[in-house]
Amino acid sequence: MKINTQRLIGISIFSLLLASCGSEEPAMPELSFEESLQEQLIKAQPGDVINIPAGTHQMTRSLSLNVPGVTIRGEGMDTSILSFKNQIQGAEGLLVSADDFVIEDLAIEDTVGDALKINESTNVVIRRVRTEWTAGPLTTNGAYGIYPVQTENVLIDGSVAIGASDAGIYVGQSTQIVVRNSRAEYNVAGIEIENSTFADVHDNIATNNTGGILVFDLPNLPVQGGRNTRVFDNEIFNNNTENFAPEGNIVGSVPAGTGLMVLANDSIEVFGNNFADNQTAHALVVSYLINEIPYDDPNYDPFPESIYIHDNQFSNGGQNPDSEPLNMLKEATGQAIPDIVWDGMVVPGKQPEEILCIANNGGASFVNLDAANGFAEPSFDSSVHQCSLPSLSVISLSSASQ
């Protein structure tokens, strides 16, 4: 029998091709970094560490995490960057609703809305994180940079916030808070503690904001009664950026050139700070009524009480106030606005010294604006306020938030 060798060779090659096709599955397309990160966040388990490698990583959609006990870690706030410049979906950069959460050593840039929002969480550490809108202070920037709200045991340490159209570092409706060793620059509000209790804000730099540090209590929020905040050992200087908050925002009423503003909050201790070159006023203590904004919250207390400002340094402030009443005062006196400004609105049944005590500020000047009487008779006599109040307690966070 004659063997057809060419036919045999053809059959063998065909058989090999069939075997090859049957033994291998089609290759899956490789995930992009954004897809891989989304998948890690969705599939995360308690105890997981999600690493963000060096580089600028383009994000087009919001990220979210709702699993407790997760750490997100980069290689440095100027090295591992999540850029949302081309974001097409979502209201935040990263939204976290999870306890025992740590984020460190990375940056979140140019989000459509808030950069890093932490919601209803306990034991939160935000360490060496930068949030920034890189085009500078614009009304179109997102509202908040670092934004824990309704949280407990919160540490913000060594972080940077730049360019927020509301507040760079904001902690709202929360308790047991430490903000330290951080820098806030070119925001409307540099650092803001709002409707919160038991906060230490110390060893920070607040500069080139509209207002350096704000401690507010506002009506019509689920959590009210802000109190017990210590603001100490901070550098608060040159906060003269024009207010660029969107119309209708409460921080839109903060005058450019404000160092510290305490609004309707109670039991606030301000000490060891260096105030310099804030051109409206270094320290403002005011009632919510100063805004002339009506409110309909029967449980809201619009007056500040037990404010203790002591052992601070003040220099070169109040030269160019961004406020009609303060401008009128400057024109009337021919002098710069005093270092410490109180609107003069007294809580019914309280004495002025129960509202504000001032001590050991190196000859700092003072004015009571007499706002309750239409600014009719401002007083520069601080003698009734030369008093002291008990020091507030140090904030001690749980071990999970150190």
Give a verbal description of the structure.
With 402 residues, this protein is mainly β. The protein has one domain. The protein has four helices and 30 strands. The protein has a 19-stranded parallel beta sheet that branches. The radius of gyration is 27 Å and the shape is elongated. 48% of the residues are buried.
Summarize the structure.
This protein has one domain. The chain has four helices and 30 strands. The protein has helices spanning 5-23, 33-43, 324-333, 352-355; strands spanning 49-51, 55-58, 61-65, 71-73, 80-83, 89-96, 101-109, 114-119, 122-132, 144-149, 152-157, 160-162, 167-172, 175-180, 183-185, 189-194, 197-202, 205-207, 211-216, 227-232, 235-237, 258-263, 266-271, 274-276, 281-286, 305-310, 313-315, 340-342, 356-359, 366-368.
Q: What profile does the largest beta sheet have? A: 19 strands, parallel
Shape: elongated
Radius of gyration: 27 Å
Low-confidence stretches: 1-23
Mean pLDDT across residues: 92
The helicity comes to 10-25%
- Whole-number tally of structural domains: 1
Key traits:
30 strands, 19-stranded parallel beta sheet, mainly beta, 4 helices, elongated, 11% helix, single chain, disordered N terminus, 402 residues, eleven-stranded parallel beta sheet
How are the secondary structure elements laid out?
Elements: H1 5-23, H2 33-43, E1 49-51, E2 55-58, E3 61-65, E4 71-73, E5 80-83, E6 89-96, E7 101-109, E8 114-119, E9 122-132, E10 144-149, E11 152-157, E12 160-162, E13 167-172, E14 175-180, E15 183-185, E16 189-194, E17 197-202, E18 205-207, E19 211-216, E20 227-232, E21 235-237, E22 258-263, E23 266-271, E24 274-276, E25 281-286, E26 305-310, E27 313-315, H3 324-333, E28 340-342, H4 352-355, E29 356-359, E30 366-368
Parallel strand pairs: 1-4, 2-5, 3-6, 4-7, 5-7, 6-8, 7-9, 8-10, 9-11, 9-12, 10-13, 11-14, 12-15, 13-16, 14-17, 15-18, 16-19, 17-20, 18-21, 19-22, 20-23, 21-24, 22-25, 23-26, 24-27, 25-28, 26-29, 28-30
